[in-house]
Amino acid sequence: MPVPNNRQVRLIHRPIGIPQAGDFEIVAAPLVEPGPGQMRVRNIFLSVEPAMRGWVSAVGNYSEPVPLGGVMRSLAAGRVDQSNHPDFPVGTLVTGMFGWQDYAVVDPGDIEHVVTDLDLPLSTFLGVLGLNGVTAHYGLLEVGRPRPGETVVVSTAAGAVGSCVGQIARIEGCRTIGITGGPDKVRQCLDVFGYDEAVDYKAADFASRLAQACGGGVDVYFDNTSGPISDEVMRHLRIGARVIICGTASVASWDPTPQGPRVERHLLVKRASMQGFVIFDHAHHYPVARRALAQWIRSGALRYVEDILEGVEQAPDAIAGLYRGENYGKRLIRIGT
Amino acid sequence: MPVPNNRQVRLIHRPIGIPQAGDFEIVAAPLVEPGPGQMRVRNIFLSVEPAMRGWVSAVGNYSEPVPLGGVMRSLAAGRVDQSNHPDFPVGTLVTGMFGWQDYAVVDPGDIEHVVTDLDLPLSTFLGVLGLNGVTAHYGLLEVGRPRPGETVVVSTAAGAVGSCVGQIARIEGCRTIGITGGPDKVRQCLDVFGYDEAVDYKAADFASRLAQACGGGVDVYFDNTSGPISDEVMRHLRIGARVIICGTASVASWDPTPQGPRVERHLLVKRASMQGFVIFDHAHHYPVARRALAQWIRSGALRYVEDILEGVEQAPDAIAGLYRGENYGKRLIRIGT
To answer: Are residues B83 and B203 in the same domain?
Structure first.
């Protein structure tokens, strides 16, 4: 029997800033058999997310950088196609850090989630029911602690995390303001994700439109961007405001640290806080969040949009495209069925 | 009977940045009698503190600016010398926002504290047992929540608030690093306030000395300065670090907002927080803090240094002198006995 190839997307240059298509190459590697206690997973969906910029960066971060020549680190969803472990029989649908490749040989500890909600699409377990949704749920509710009637501002409001944050805030009884790029995404924020207001950060009158939308002030700011977008939001903090630092997508490089308006005086005068979090620290919260999110999806309270690229050939440029703002909703690459 | 004069220090110019001597004038005003239910307080000590810069500033702040022509707002400690209120008989020692003047006519609600610990000097109720000490106690313990063995860094480490923060942190079992200006204050930090390390921010090798002192990283940073001093500390945050924003003394003007290195990436990668607080929000904590601080003073665990200027003529330049770093310990003006 001929051994099928395992196509892998490998990192070949250490990018400065946003990883570009040329920083990766696609290589056909031999297919490996799982060892004792291991499984082989056939990947069906690969995830693409802003945090990947950090995973390939040489500068200090919250995980070791992907080594040069290594398979690009990535969450993926797939099906066990060979198994030497009784808990994960062939056919089990799983997610985990399987990397940008057709097949991954994994240990039980590499499995992030066994998909049992078979009424919901597998792809959702990389997005609204995956780390994106869990991040939104934990960050907004546990870090931001919004109260009904408060005003919640979300940057990258139409993105995989942001769209979920905005909808959870609305479900919690908050007034929601989305910040996004371009009139189409503004429409999507209002029509699909139900924001009370949506503001286009690319528009010339962004600052005044945001000021108008914020009105009486901002109680919770869920920040995925940093940079000039956040600088404008900071001007509208209300007393006791909470700023949740979830991502820094608008800043191309942190080496050296870019300059911006100092935040200390805002924080002091407004008795406000800024708090960073990394979802990997809060694995105990995943099942709690997934259960709530799945119920909201089934009831129709929570909507999601996916941006699915077809074929592994799309992978090398997929992160750069995300930073160009091309995607509508959660970006995935479909490489199997 | 001739009516004695009430010397008042009035604000006559709205300062840009640090208030200077020329922004005030000393005027002899007529002495007013207390009305029904009121008392007259003869001020003995006037307080001088960095926050006064904010009290005279036209830009957004946490209190209404002192009006032009008005008596400079200030905490003071004095003795009731006329009383129309049975709860505050003549001779009662009190503190409150009595302003930079010889005499203040006050309502019961203007009294911040009735001094009953008569074994302790009256001046301490404007410093280590006043808002400075209470600020240190609340900010460090309630906002920063240090745990034994953690590393606590304090800016303006020899100042009225900072020196108290450093000592409370040491009492709580933390390793303490003070940042201060000049070799004399470094000595004071080590010899008087018991810091484990003290670093001179005016020294050419400040950054490397700080890095060395921080060693394994910073768990709690009690920040009174903002600016380049804080920028260096931020580079050494440990995972889970808490930055307490208590003051911004090193930044001369916040209008327009000055630029500095963005903090979002530090906060994200280190899962760290920055939290501003204003002690006036936490009046419930004053007696708790005062009791603990007074006990530590009596037991010798907590030391304090006062920088007492003699005579109301010293008042106009006293804030500027504070920002020039002239004072050793809590700055006060003695205007009575």
So the answer is: no
